[in-house]
User: Fold this.
Amino acid sequence: MTRQPNNNRKPAASDGSQTADKPGFAARKVAADILGNVVHKKRPLDGELDTQSGHSGFRALAGNDRSLVRAIVGASLRHRGEIVEILTRLLDRDIPEKTGRVLDILHVAIAQMLFLDVPDRAAVSLAVDHAGLDRRARPYKGLVNGVLRRLGRERADVTDELDAERLNTPDWLWTTWQEAYGEDLARKISSAHQREAGLDLSVKGDSAEWVQRLEGVPVGAGSVRLVKKGAVEALEGFGDGAWWVQDVAAALPVRLLGDVAGLNVADLCAAPGGKTAQLAAAGANVTAIDISKSRLKRLSENMQRLGLSVSTVASDLRRYEPSEPFDAVLLDAPCSATGTIRRHPDVPWIKKPYDIEKLSEIQAELLDRVVDWVKPGGLIVYCTCSLEPAEGEAQVSAFLARQAGKIEVVEIDAVEIGGLTKCVTAEGYLRCLPCYEAGETPETLGMDGFFGARFRRS
Ligand SMILES: C[S@@+](CC[C@H](N)C(=O)[O-])C[C@H]1O[C@@H](n2cnc3c(N)ncnc32)[C@H](O)[C@@H]1O
Assistant:
């Protein structure tokens, strides 16, 4: 019997609009797009995911789809090295360039299949649909289907003996970490990058009280780590400006200035103001200087919410000249941010050795400039959220050599930073690693990578 056509049925759309309407399709498409923008065009992930100015497709999505995009792109970047290796095992030959989004579509699908709780069927079918809708990827629709189905069938074999820690770290970063910290710590650092960072708060008042009120755990030198997840704005104390979000390690450099009450302190490279808030809350008269007007605006908004008063100056430190020297200076210099990979999994894939070189030149220039901005006998703290010795230990050695006779290192005592002995180096510097514990309980594992050094002007 031949089947009669059903004239009541809507004809299939030939423009792919039916596929585009499939639940979850838009989120996958946006995820592949954003992944491509990050890894090929080196656009920072934060910018792409900005709800005001980010990727237009992302902004058009509903809240749950946005969360899905964040999760997919995050997993694709955290496990990028593993996914590349898995594709090498699955593909007989390289996929030629100029095939549109094929590789990004595959990466996004594999991240869902292996690292997120997405059923294989959904991940494969949406990836195949996506390839079918992309003009240049269309010829590879069959390949996308075949590769992903094979991964589903042969998952155990294909993922056997993957050295995740090594694969997920680009060679140049691995080399510097291995040289600086040894293989064991390099592996632990890489492994820490697979976990999302916790949420830490700095508080204006008594931190023990906020540990109790927010049911958190104490970490570092008076920070509170939240254990429950939820919207920050909805938490007790946010509206009253009782605390601000700041990683436990990022809160340590200000501690190195000691009691700052009543002192005139220059907070250099200040925005968005985590350290400014610490200084102002401790009673310092703060002059917060930053090159970026828009970031300074955010700093002012943050201080307003916290009910803290500071002076702000929008200026390039390379041109600024203070009218008189300060009692103390904090320089939180621009850096590669490799200490924040847990929060910014794009960093290993958008930064290059050249960036570190350029940034360390700027750091040296800023250090040499601000050394005269502190009164004789005053303290200077230099810090970066970087794991690279070029932006930390080596930078400081060179600074000390250039400024011999003018400054001396004031070694850090672990007592000043909440007893975190691991975070103090033999030279008396601060060196936090993402694999370190910030307290006593299991929830306290992990902190941003940070470097800090303290000098006194003689
Ligand atoms: C690591 S962030 C500062 C974070 C901030 N201290 C905090 O705790 O919230 C570095 C800052 O340096 C600023 N910056 C970069 N180059 C600068 C320069 N030449 N002069 C002044 N600020 C600069 C950037 O705009 C950025 O806000």
About this structure: The two ends are 100 Å apart (CA to CA). The first strand starts at residue 199 and ends at 203.
